[in-house]
């Protein structure tokens, strides 16, 4: 037997693995999570407008986003 036949024999001796599928009940939750994530990112573009509408400035919006960044950098490693 040459190397090619030997490889074919080994591959046919492997057990057949059935692919794992995602339950269909998870799909709406994934879509909802994706929607909320996208909305959160989109809201960062509107935060400056919101601050100006309430008497703040772009500096206030920047400070808020900066503090959110610091909180994220500290919080994520703590929770794993």
Structural account:
With 80 residues, the chain is mainly alpha-helical. It has a domain of 55 residues. Helices cover 75% and strands 0% of the residues. The chain is built from three helices and no strands. Helix 2 packs antiparallel against helix 3. The longest helix has 28 residues. The radius of gyration is 26 Å and the shape is elongated. The termini are far apart. 0% of the residues are buried.
Helix content: over 70%
Q: Report the total helices.
A: 3
- Which overall shape is indicated by the principal axes computed on the Cα atoms? elongated
Order of helices and strands: HHH
Measured distance between first and last alpha carbons: 52 Å
Class computed from helices, strands and strand pairing:
mainly alpha
Task: Kindly list the characteristics that best describe this protein.
mainly alpha, 80 residues, elongated
